[in-house]
Structure formats: structure tokens, C-alpha cells
Amino acid sequence: HGVYDDRIYWKEAVSLKKGGYEVHVVAMGNKNESGITDEGIFYTQLERKTYFKSRVINKLYKILFKKEFHHEILKAAKEIGAGVYHFHDVNLNKIVKGLKQITPVPIIINDVHEPYPENIIDYKSYSKKIGVLNQFISSRIKLLEKKASRYYDHIIATEEVVASKFVSYTCVNRVSVLYNYFMDDQFETDGTDEKRYDGIYTGSITKIRGAIEIIEAIGIVKRQIPTIKFLFLGKIHCDSLKDEMNYKINRLGLETNIFIVDSVPFNEVGHYYLKSKVGFGIFKDNKTHRTILPIKTFEYMAFGLPIICSYFSVMGKYVTKHNCGILVDPDKPEQIATGFIQLLTNNQAVSEMGSLGRNAVNNFYTWNSEEKKLLKIYSKLLEDGPVKA
Questions:
Q1: How far is Cα 329 from Cα 336, in angstroms, rounded to an integer?
Q2: SS3 (DSSP) at 129
Q3: In angstroms, rounded to a whole number, what is the distance separating the alpha carbons of residues 141 and 51?
Q4: C-beta atoms surrounding 137 within 10 Å
Q5: Average pLDDT in the 169-173 region?
Q6: How far apart (Å, rounded) are the C-alpha atoms in residues 117 and 106?
Q7: If we measure between CA atoms, which residue out of 111, 130, 106, 108 comes closest to residue 119?
Q8: Which residues, 6 or more positions from 229, have their beta carbon under 8 angstroms from its beta carbon?
Q9: pLDDT tens by residue, 329-351
Q10: Which of 109, 133, 136, 304 has the most beta carbons within 10 angstroms of its beta carbon?
Q11: Model confidence over 92-123: pLDDT tens digits?
Q12: pTM here?
């Protein structure tokens, strides 16, 4: 992760700083550097190494095989001499044992953002790159997580399903769930910005997250609403997907209807939400997407955007619970288009669903509640001291 990751930096690190802790962030970036941020948080940035052109293979190689990569991170972590180390990446399972050999023994927390072994199996972009090895690599990562868990003083998960897996590895009183809820003081969610985009998708742009189906759906919508405007906001890591998307956009004559903007800093995302009407989460069906709860769920809701999302997804459960959007089959562009047209031709429905989503976030899903839980976890761990592996 980079220094200014939305959960790691803007939520957890800033919350700990406000709670009275001295906070250091060790992150990856384009060059080696260190300093202090405007929020008073120390940072050490290590140059991100690239061993393979493929982003996926490069990441898996570092997780499983590249010892020098882990030695570099371990060295930077030891030099800080922290009382508590808070991990946020599957790579770091490789250095937990090394940190536990420091005197005095530090407290170590593992913060698990997603079901990594399942991702390797489910994500088509992964399996195409590593072919028959995907099952093997998934099992290796699962074994790595399991073996490392005995050294962690506490494990934090962002979803219940992931938390339950780690309970089976260790014990229930060493596992907590901290949801990646919306941080209500990070964005200005009210504004009079002109709604330039009828629909928006934010996050990594991939096939398995419905990039092609969304484009095809916009092609259908254009027949009824010729001025339709849609924004993809995020990175396209696969060149072949970028080519396929551009080909599809050109073939359907959507050059003036679909806009693709590279990812922007976390605190700038809100400007695009204010200019949009409807949020999209078209995730393909697999075990991962039936488990993960994307932060964009609460961002869309907080900005009053009705949501169009997959019927089986965790996002869909929140949409159903608060009646703040429409559920669709992610494999059927015509169904996505129908739902989109229903919203764009019914201003009252958009207003009502938007208000219901916004109220739900304000009442139940802000980071303020999770911040209190985080500080309580730290307080208890520091009171009890490190556990014996």
C-alpha cells in the first residue's frame, strides 16, 4: 500500500494519532523517502520493486519467494522500534516471526482487508496469468496465513466471513471485525455541483467487476437517452482489458458517453461523487464477491447516490436492507440498462433512494464507531501485553 491509503492512513493511522499515539507508516512508493505528513504522522516509503511485467505475477512472486523484499521491510520496521506493529498486507505474514524476536517483544496486529486465498481462485485475471498454478498458490497463501496467525496478538478483519476463518486458526478473543465504513469528516457530501455524470463506478476496473457489461448496458441506454454520460474512475491494470474497453466503446459509438479517469487521491474522490447521479457495483458471481463489502457501498450512499449492483453481493444486502437502489444480474447488460433507465427517468425514486442511503450511513455506517473500537483494541492489547506464540 502507498502512504495515503484510505483505510490505513486516513482512517486508522489518523485515528490512532488523534488517540494520542505516535504513529509511523511504512509504505511502498516510487522512491525511497521519509518524513512527517501534515497530520503529524511519520512515514517511511520504500521503493516498490518490479520483477515481472504482470502486476499479478509480480505481487505473488514477492509474497511467496522474494526474500530480499521481506528483509527490506523487516529492517525498516525494526528501525522504528515500535511497541505495536499493525500489518495490512498478506506479504507481511513473512516477517511476523522476525519481529517477534525483538526485545522487548512487540505487540503485532494483522489487519486482513480481504479473503486473499479465495481471490486467487476467483479472479479471472489471476487464473489467466498463473494457469494451473492458481490452486497451488492459493493453498500456499492460506497455509502462510494460518502459520503466521499463531504469532499475532490480534487479528482484525473487515468482514465476518474472513474473521470466522481466523477464529478457526487461533481463538475468538484474538479476532475482531472493524468495518471499512465511511469517514464522514473526510468528504463534503453536500454540494450544488452540476450532475455531469449519470452514472459512476469507482475502484479497480476489471472484467470481473463488470467493465464490459457496463459498457454494453450504456450502449442500450443510449438508444433511449442519447446524452447519457458514464464515468469509470480507477485504474485499469490490464492492457488487454483497456484495449477491449476502447474497442467496445468505439464499436458502440460511445466515445462521447463514457469517460475513463485514472484513480485520484482519496480526498478528491468526493468531487466526482458530487457530479454523479447513480453508483454502480456490477460484480461477477464468485465466493470473493459474496464475501467482501466494498467501501464504495457507503461512499455511494453517503453522497445520496442510488446504487445499481449485483443481486447476490454483500453490497446488494445493504441496498435491499435500506431500499437505496436496484439489484441486477451482472451478466445481463440489458437488465443493468433497464434498472439504469428506471432511475434516470424517475427523479422522485432517485431522490428517495438517495435520501434513504444517506440517512442509513449517517445513522449506522460511519468510521466514528469503528474508530472507538480500534482505540479500545489498542488499549486492551497494551494493558495485557504480547501473547506467547
A1: 7
A2: helix
A3: 19
A4: 17
A5: 90
A6: 27
A7: 130
A8: 196, 197, 198, 199, 257, 258, 259
A9: 999 999 999 999 999 999 999 99
A10: 304
A11: 999 999 999 999 999 999 999 988 888 777 76
A12: 0.82
